[in-house]
Amino acid sequence: MIRWLRDPVLEPGVTALVALAAVVYLGGARRLRRRSSGRLVLPSWRVGAFVGGLVVVLEAVASPLDDAATTSLTAHMIQHLLLLVVAPVLLVLGSPARPFLTALGPSIPLRRLRWTRGIWRELTRPLPVFLLYAASLLAWHVPGPYDAAVHHQALHALEHLTFLGTAVLLWMVLLRERPQVPAGMAIGLAMATWVVTASLGALLTFAGAPLYPVYAHATSAWGLSPLRDQRMAGLIMWAPTGLAYIAAAGWRLLRLLAEPDAEGTPPARRTAGTLAGTKGGA
Fold first, then answer.
1. 84: which DSSP letter?
2. For the CA atoms of 251, 252, 256, 258, what is the dihedral angle to 10 degrees?
3. CA–CA distance, 44 with 6 (Å, rounded to integer)
4. How far apart are CA 231 and CA 240, in angstroms?
5. What is the dihedral of CA 49, 47, 61, 68, to 10 degrees?
6. 235 and 201 in contact (C-beta within 8 Å)?
7. Tens of pLDDT along 72-84?
8. Torsion of CA 244, 248, 253, 257, to 10 degrees
9. What's the CA gap between 180 and 177, in Å, rounded?
10. Measured distance CA(71)–CA(229) in Å, rounded
């Protein structure tokens, strides 16, 4: 039983924000359906994905896992995995833009919305997305900021917010929520992100000494030495997190190969036809 259900007053701020996001999203989805005369504009699976993403956020930051992160780098890395991969993927699959804009549209001045669209367009280009994500990931894993975040709840919350925010931007590009981003650029973004996460994971795994003093005397509660705990955390960053970006690159590549050309023929079928014609001519 996760902590936010057992004792929700422990994380009132997080619970309130997640509840507000759910109310706005579901309200916007309902309004979209009413405008379309009852037609299902937003598939049920997308609604479920978004709600599931919010649940994962709560599980990451308002559950016993959050307590364990103060005494174990491995637990903290699992927390980061949820905020960098699992939650943002689900949130992006929920296509939140239309429900949120539909719910909040009447209260947002049109001029301000047009102004923010330009900023949003620039922030969601592959290069800015990569720089924001990589800077956030690496900066918070420098020993000084990392230890400070473990000791101070406000910094810890800021760390989680930057992780989730930059990861949502990243996965919007990788999952083709921005169709104007060419597939090749999205694949390059996925592989560059994999290099960053794999490098960080390798550093944690193969370091000859513990990097974070905050865990020097804390991991004994788990029956682990600080160095072994750090190596396990590095493997989590290296393997499942890195594989997620490789999978995203592979998915975009498959989608690219399945796209029809100007004549409406998918590349794979066109290639097969060319080969068959060549054999016939021979």
1. I
2. 30
3. 28
4. 14
5. -40
6. yes
7. 999 999 999 999 9
8. 120
9. 9
10. 10
Which contacts of 103-111 are long-range, i.e. CB under 8 A and separated by 24 or more positions?
Answer: 103/24, 103/25, 103/27, 103/28, 103/31, 104/24, 104/28
Quick one: tokens of 71? 């005494």
Max CA distance (Å), the chain: 77
The structure tokens listed for 95 are 């296509």
* Residues ≥6 apart with Cβ < 8 Å to 44: none
For residue 67 the two structure tokens come to: 């307590």
The candidate with the shortest Cα–Cα distance to 211, out of 195, 196, 231, is 231
Hey, what's the torsion of the CAs at 179, 92, 165, 100, to 10 degrees? 90
Tell me the whole-structure pTM to 2 decimals: 0.83
Q: Which residue in the block uniquely carries the two structure tokens 């650029």?
A: 185
Q: Are 82 and 52 in contact (CB under 8 A)?
A: no
Q: What is the pLDDT of residues 196-248, one digit of tens each?
A: 999 999 999 999 999 999 999 899 889 999 999 999 999 999 999 989 999 99
3-state helix, strand, coil in the chain (%, to 5): 80, 0, 20
